[in-house]
Amino acid sequence: MPAVLQFILNVSLILLAVVLCVLLGKEIFNFVEFIMLSEVKEFQYFLEKILVFFLYFEFITMIVKYFRENYHFPLRYFLYIGITAMIRLIIVDHHDPMNTLLYAFVILTLILSYYIINKTPRERP
């Protein structure tokens, strides 16, 4: 039974990776189209497109890591993605100081979690 579930998970992740690659290609096309055809360069929209591109890229890379790490998602990769996503959110949405402060606390919490993960022993009794 675990082998069947592992197979279903692997097939699902491969399908997800294919869909993400297609969407990444679409984002590249939209990004190039925006640069070539846009008369007025909206910096905020430009930043959002770059950030969305990197989110797709990170999730595809994470799926590749899953297969390279012998069917295992290391928790630290989720923390990396969370930290970088929050930093991107601060870059794009920094108009409200209270939200920016909350985002910074989220980043601090993720960094502390990463520190705790690195300090705890890998093998438990």
Automatic annotation (TrEMBL):
TM segment ranges: 7-25, 45-67, 74-92, 98-117
Keyword Acyltransferase found: no
PANTHER family per the UniProt record, alphabetical: PROTEIN PSIE (PTHR37819:SF1)
Protein's cellular compartments: Cell inner membrane
Protein name per Swiss-Prot or TrEMBL: Protein PsiE
The keyword Cell membrane belongs to this UniProt entry's keyword annotation: yes
GO annotations of cellular component type: plasma membrane
The family this protein is said to belong to: Belongs to the PsiE family.
